[in-house]
Amino acid sequence: MSPATPQDAGWWARWRHRMRTQWHAALWLMVVWVLLWGGVSVANVLAGTLVGFLLISVMALPSIDYRGRVRPVAALRLLGFFVRDLLVASVQVSFQALRFGWTPHGAVVRVPMRDTGDLYLTVTSVLTSLVPGTVIVEAHRITGTLYVHVLDLESSGGADAVRHHIHELEERVLRALASDDELAHAGLGPQGTAVADARAVEAMAGDVDPGAPSVTPEEDRP
Amino acid sequence: MDWIAVADVVAAVLMLCGAFLVLAAGVGVARFPDLLGRMHAATKPQVLGLVLLLTGVGLRVHAWDVAGMLFLVAVFQLLTAPVAAHMVGRAGYRTGKVDTSLLALDELTPDQEAAERAAQDEADGETEQADADPR
To answer: Mind telling me which residue stretches traverse the membrane in this protein (chain B) (predicted)?
Structure first.
């Protein structure tokens, strides 16, 4: 919590701080309101704005501690890879479901993440869970560890491939949303550095040698 | 050939693809052996299947107010499906509904047991340590 919101400050001061930091939430609620009413009109927009500000006044959620910045190119790249993963994995899981006589052998894989904070951990988890074939069954936020269930370990390429895949997703999330400081802290150089390129090439190749040394130090776990 | 006809053909293709994915999800729920496998089938192809169906409907009805509502349905589906899947998986795991002997690899159970032992040790020392328990 920033110093601007001391717990003992009056309701009015906290309200003004909330309006400064959470006006986008009210804007989003207004958009939802207008879409639900099914048409843009002065009355809809005004009523939606009123409802939005009323909601963040009386039923406010805690502010997200976000210090990063959105990079449009990296965000588009994240979105593109996500759509590709979603399409490929949906078709794969569908055919696995329709392959009678074949039984998937699931697995729970421990994926230690970079130490970057709750927001990026959450975004990575949500995107992982949306892609078929992988579900987060546990997320331990203090150690930053995800436990990922894969539908079939063999068709996912083994535990190391799963870890590698999630780490790449996390890198794309960080490059899209994190600040330069957070990127440096996570051990990622600026976009287009040799490290990033080498990993991207490896990612494109798709197959990861399980015996090869791990890409990130965090992966070196027994 | 006018644009309405093109949109109708695209809508039909999208709806058929979406219906196929939802059908496959249903078959998967009936066929996969354990809770987590079924949850994959129940939550995943359905996400893309529903988005395709909604897009198809949106192209077919030619009305912006309906398209806005379909867009909202898709957004909230994308926001809630991972949470639902996570809660089912986590609750199943914690209440022992997941048959870990069916798993090819299980890296969570040892960690959970270690955390429980650590929590027990801490409890003996009468210190509460919330982070020992993976959550």
So the answer is: 12-33, 45-63, 69-88
